[in-house]
């Protein structure tokens, strides 16, 4: 088992690339598990902004509108002077100044659009909230005034509508989860370490063994090429399995044993194992194709990051353009992420959910077979060339 032992000796000498990638992933995954996915729903809540209302109409409707804005936000009284406006906005004394123009009530009663003039602080992005509220208030006021309500009654009706919230109930399937578990985010980021670490380990060692002088020396030593390839393949497989086992143990450190009782844990293992095979085939291809040890770090970073960004590991697929998503479907990482999402949303996979998961895993294995097949063709041609 000379080749087998030599493989692990070489691996020990290059252990730091493995350790660095593993530490980076652990830091990344711990943050992801703690903070959740970037695709989680953002929950909005009303906040009180510092606003100023300049009433140039002085009508019953404008007075009622100013009072209501004061209930929603913090009002600051300002002099109706453009220079004062500039100073207050520049020093962030107010987030926004709302100007009610003359003829405001008259135009609303007539059913005409009468937009309010607004002045915003340069860095006050929060004014989007007040803008939405104002648009809604004006729309409701206009409707009730056109129906013949007095300004005070129209504002009362508007307040009632603005304060009412529609109750929406989502009926979940009995096997579905309302919230994706934290450990799902750990598995989402697995493609990065798998590809980066395996390229750093397997590709690097393959390049060293496939060096022309080393290969010829092995053949001259009456060591059969068949035996050499067998021991080399066995070492590669063992290293890959060890890395996979290590990556499967880390979630227990981060989130405990909850995932074992999730009902879908075996599918997490199956999905990650299928991508491990993909990562192995990619690493094998790079090890056969490349002739430079110095290029391994470049391949390790570019391939792993490229697969993760385009496949939806780091960037949510929901925010990708249609063109990018179309390209992503030709990457195994895309199907890994899609499959991982389906697994994370269920406590039990049956019917269409199970079919989708198995389809995603099958697609990944097809990628692995294709990549490995290309590797064998390149390897055969290189051998014939020697």
Fold topology:
Layout: H1 2-13, H2 15-35, E1 50-55, H3 60-72, E2 74-75, H4 82-90, E3 96-100, H5 104-109, E4 117-120, H6 127-146, H7 151-163, H8 182-188, H9 191-209, H10 212-220, H11 225-255, H12 265-289, H13 296-311, H14 322-328, H15 332-344, H16 351-385
Parallel strand pairs: 1-2, 1-3
Antiparallel strand pairs: 3-4
Helix pairs in contact: 1-11, 2-8, 2-9, 3-7, 6-7, 9-11, 9-12, 9-13, 11-12, 12-15, 12-16, 13-15, 15-16
Characteristics of this structure?
386 residues, mainly alpha, 16 helices, 4% strand
Architecture overview:
With 386 residues, the chain is mainly alpha-helical. The chain has helices at residues 2-13, 15-35, 60-72, 82-90, 104-109, 127-146, 151-163, 182-188, 191-209, 212-220, 225-255, 265-289, 296-311, 322-328, 332-344, 351-385; strands at residues 50-55, 74-75, 96-100, 117-120. Helix 3 links the parallel strand 1 and strand 2 (74-75). It is elongated.
Largest sheet, if any? 4 strands, mixed
By DSSP (H or I, 4+ residues per run), the number of helices equals: 16
SSE arrangement, N to C: HHEHEHEHEHHHHHHHHHHH
Percent strand equals under 5%
Task: Give the fraction of residues assigned to helices.
Answer: 55-70%
Low-confidence stretches: 40-45, 165-172
Our Rg estimate from Cα atoms comes to 32 Å
Structural class: mainly alpha
Distance between the termini: 25 Å
| Count of DSSP strands | 4
**What is the average per-residue confidence, as pLDDT, rounded to a whole number?**
80
Strand order of the largest sheet: 2-1-3-4
* Global morphology: elongated
């Amino acid at each position: 088992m000379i080749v087998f032992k030599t493989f692990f000796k070489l691996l020990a000498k290059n252990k730091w690339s493995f350790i660095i990638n593993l530490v980076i992933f652990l830091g990344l995954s711990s943050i992801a598990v703690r903070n959740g996915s970037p695709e989680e729903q953002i929950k909005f809540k009303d906040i009180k902004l510092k606003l100023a209302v300049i009433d140039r109409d002085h009508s019953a409707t404008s007075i009622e509108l100013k009072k209501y804005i004061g209930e929603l936000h913090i009002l600051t009284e300002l002099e109706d002077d453009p220079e004062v406006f500039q100073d207050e906005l520049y020093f962030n004394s107010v987030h926004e100044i709302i100007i009610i123009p003359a003829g405001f009530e008259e135009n609303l009663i007539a059913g005409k659009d009468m937009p309010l003039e607004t002045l915003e602080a340069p860095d006050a992005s929060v004014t989007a909230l007040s803008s939405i509220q104002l648009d809604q208030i004006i729309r409701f006021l206009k409707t009730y005034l056109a129906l013949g309500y007095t300004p005070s009654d129209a504002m009362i009706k508007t307040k009632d509508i603005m304060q009412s919230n529609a109750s929406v109930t989502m009926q979940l399937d009995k096997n579905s989860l309302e919230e994706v578990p934290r450990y799902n985010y750990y598995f989402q980021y697995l493609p990065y370490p798998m590809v980066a670490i395996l390229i750093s380990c397997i590709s690097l060692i393959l390049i060293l063994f496939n060096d022309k002088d080393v290969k010829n020396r092995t053949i001259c030593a009456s060591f059969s090429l068949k035996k050499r390839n067998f021991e080399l393949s066995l070492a590669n497989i063992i290293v890959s399995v060890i890395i996979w086992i290590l990556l499967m143990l880390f979630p227990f450190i981060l989130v405990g044993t909850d995932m074992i009782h999730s009902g879908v844990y075996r599918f997490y293992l199956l999905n990650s194992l299928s991508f491990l095979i993909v990562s192995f085939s990619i690493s094998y291809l790079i090890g056969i194709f490349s002739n430079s040890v110095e290029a391994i770090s470049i391949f390790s970073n570019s391939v792993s990051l490229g697969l993760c960004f385009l496949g939806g590991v780091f960037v949510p697929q929901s925010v990708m353009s249609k063109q990018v998503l179309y390209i992503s479907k030709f990457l195994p990482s895309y199907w890994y992420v899609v499959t991982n999402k389906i697994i994370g949303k269920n406590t039990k996979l049956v019917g269409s959910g199970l079919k989708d998961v198995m389809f995603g895993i099958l697609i990944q294995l097809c990628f692995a077979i294709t990549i490995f097949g290309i590797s064998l063709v390149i390897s055969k041609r290189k051998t014939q060339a020697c």
